[in-house]
Amino acid sequence: MQGNVFVVGLGLIGGSIALAIKKAHPEAVIIGYDVNSHQLGLARSLKVIDEAVHSVEDGLEQADLIVLATPVMQTEALLLSMPLERLKRGAIVTDVGSTKQRIVQGARRLLDHGVAFIGGHPMAGSHKSGVAAARAHLFENAFYILTPTDSVPPQQIGRLKQWLSGTKAQFVVLTPEQHDRITGVISHFPHLIAASLVHQAREYENENALVSRLAAGGFRDITRIASSNPEMWRDIFIHNKCELLALFDRWIAEMGRLRSFVEEENSIAIYHYFLEAKQFRDGLPVRTKGAIPSFYDLYVDVPDYPGVISEVTGYLAEENISITNIRIIETREEIYGVLRLSFQSEEDRARAKACLAKHTNYATYEG
Ligand SMILES: NC(=O)c1ccc[n+]([C@@H]2O[C@H](COP(=O)([O-])OP(=O)(O)OC[C@H]3O[C@@H](n4cnc5c(N)ncnc54)[C@H](O)[C@@H]3O)[C@@H](O)[C@H]2O)c1
Ligand SMILES: O=C(O)C(=O)C[C@]1(C(=O)O)C=C[C@@H](O)C=C1
């Protein structure tokens, strides 16, 4: 498809959507804006966008598709303040936010003005944030929820799906209410549990410093998502307050029941609790999301001279640090090029960072 796509908010999700759109529609022009000028500059130099603009207004007029990819409170505010007279006729506006009721409510003024607003939520992501973590294939095989209202013509929904075809996601249409109820249970509340487990461990750490050193596989698995962006999750909890309050009540009651099983040493009840959880968990449909596991990336700002890559890989080889992937993002004549090294684990990445700091003065940053 030809046209201009304007992405507001160039983080993990906005960047990944921009890359997926460009992959499927190379002739489209991707224009980007982010309040954070560092993210905006990085999006441009990583070629996630073709053009950067310095305000929302500057990008609106030319856009055939506008994708709002900011934290949900910001998205709601943008929808409430967007100067509608500056929008191109026939433009589609969508978002990627993790909540839908307040966003669709905020978009009422667009819908009343005849602008096709179609709420969206790609159901894949990561605890990483920022444009350096963006990947074109992040949403491959994932569900992509759309929450169009009745006033949006079906052709516009079809056009949006075509724009987003490069995500290789599977589209599902839900009402905003259905969306917020389901994601409350399977996405939002689990984040709160992960964060609360980390808080609990931190309090015990005050009693014994061994707690974090001994925190092993199980604790790390269940708390990975506690490393997510706090601003994003603050906004989600405020937006989906009603569903979450109901979940708190059910969870507290459930914990009380479990607590009594343990107190009474009710071995049958405890066994069945774990067994039923295992059976349900094991029966969940297996969906392999496209995100490659090599998410432990290190960007190295290397000078542009022949042999620099073998120099870098040579230092890593000397210390037996395996690289799973290597890519040159950009080589600019006058300054530095960016080398992306991917590792299998966080530990390998940390070792690589230390190794390069020891042997070189190249700046490194984690993606
Ligand atoms: N991270 C995930 O796993 C995930 C998955 C699906 C959907 N989402 C949703 O996607 C949205 C973005 O999340 P993310 O993970 O990409 O976060 P992120 O922190 O990586 O990126 C958000 C970007 O928005 C920018 N921003 C904030 N306010 C802005 C404003 N007013 N104008 C322009 N830019 C602004 C920030 O500077 C940042 O670069 C959120 O609404 C989130 O709920 C996240
Ligand atoms: O994999 C992760 O780190 C995520 O938290 C991704 C996740 C999720 O809860 O599944 C987070 C929020 C989004 O709205 C969608 C996906």
UniProtKB/TrEMBL annotation:
Pathway: Amino-acid biosynthesis; L-tyrosine biosynthesis; (4-hydroxyphenyl)pyruvate from prephenate (NAD(+) route): step 1/1. GO terms for molecular function: NAD+ binding; prephenate dehydrogenase (NAD+) activity; prephenate dehydrogenase (NADP+) activity. GO terms for biological process: tyrosine biosynthetic process. The keyword Cell inner membrane does not apply. It catalyses: prephenate + NAD(+) = 3-(4-hydroxyphenyl)pyruvate + CO2 + NADH. The keyword Oxidoreductase applies. Residues 3-292 form the Prephenate/arogenate dehydrogenase domain. Its EC number is 1.3.1.12. Keywords: Amino-acid biosynthesis, Aromatic amino acid biosynthesis, NAD, Oxidoreductase, Tyrosine biosynthesis. Residues 297-367 form the ACT domain. Belongs to the prephenate/arogenate dehydrogenase family. NCBIfam families: PRK06545.1-5 (NF005107). PANTHER family: PREPHENATE DEHYDROGENASE, PREPHENATE DEHYDROGENASE [NADP(+)]. This is Prephenate dehydrogenase. It comes from Geobacillus genomosp. 3.
